[in-house]
Amino acid sequence: MIEQARTHRFFGILALCLATVLGGCVTSFPIDEYNLARTAYEAARDADANRYAPALWYNAEEKYREGEKAYRDRKFDLARERFIETRTIAEQAENAARLARQKSGDAP
After folding, report:
1. More exposed terminus of the chain, fewer Cβ within 10 Å: N or C?
2. DSSP state of 29
3. pLDDT tens-digit map of 51-95
4. Residue whose C-alpha is closest to residue 80's, from 26, 27, 34
5. What is the rounded end-to-end Cα distance, in angstroms, of the chain?
6. Is the CB of residue 25 less than 8 Å from the CB of residue 79?
7. Helix (H, G, I), strand (E, B) or coil at 27
8. 0.85 cut: is pTM over it?
């Protein structure tokens, strides 16, 4: 009886330790970064960045795909970094495309 109580206590303590360790390893989902990156990416696409700022557009597209892959693979820290890079580059691509369109007279 005493031996059984010790075994239960041991496994209880072990379960508590595992829960503490595993709970500390969880990172938060980069939902805000994902949404902001997607919005910036779509805005750059709508501004025809692939035509007027192809280098920036390609970089933004590449970072966005890398971020999506990292997100699917549950590498949330890497995904967060890629989404932040996507947002920055996509915003630059959108601005460059709008400026180029304006200079060429294609602006609506």
Report:
1. C
2. -
3. 999 999 999 999 999 999 999 999 999 999 999 999 999 999 999
4. 34
5. 84
6. no
7. coil
8. no
